[in-house]
Automatic annotation (TrEMBL):
SUPFAM superfamilies: LysM domain. Residues 68-113 form the LysM domain. Pfam families: LysM. It comes from the Bacteria. PROSITE patterns: LYSM. SMART domains: LysM. This is LysM peptidoglycan-binding domain-containing protein.
Length: 118
């Protein structure tokens, strides 16, 4: 006897039980949510460690005598800008108090970067 899949789902709904496919889908969704949550936690831990490192070893902005202006271009990221300027994200954030979230910078914004040491 062949039974239509819709009939099985209707019967399952009547008895408030889930089909195997629904259970699998739910498990996958839970796994994805868990992975995203773990990723966010790891990212937060890395940022916290980086900030502690910067506070301990980065030069205070009062030591930075000269700066130059840099215009943020499309596709720029603070981490890449810091590497190119041979500085840290923390130093850039100290020189530019308007940067509150390193993930959110806007094209065309002019920021200060420390002059390279010669």
């Amino acid at each position: 006897m062949l039974v239509n899949a819709d009939i099985i789902e209707n019967i399952a709904a009547l008895f408030e039980s889930k089909t195997a496919a629904e259970k699998d889908a739910t498990a996958v969704k839970r796994g994805i949510k868990s992975a995203i949550s773990k990723s966010r936690i790891q990212t937060a831990r890395v940022k916290a460690i980086q900030e502690k490192w910067d506070k301990k070893f980065a030069k205070p902005t009062s030591c930075i005598k000269q700066t130059y202006n840099y215009t943020i271009k499309n596709g720029d990221q603070l981490e890449i800008i810091a590497k190119k300027a041979n500085t840290t994200i923390s130093t850039i954030k100290r020189l530019n108090p308007m940067i509150t979230d390193e993930e959110t910078i806007f094209t065309g914004t002019i920021i200060k970067l420390p002059n390279p040491i010669k």
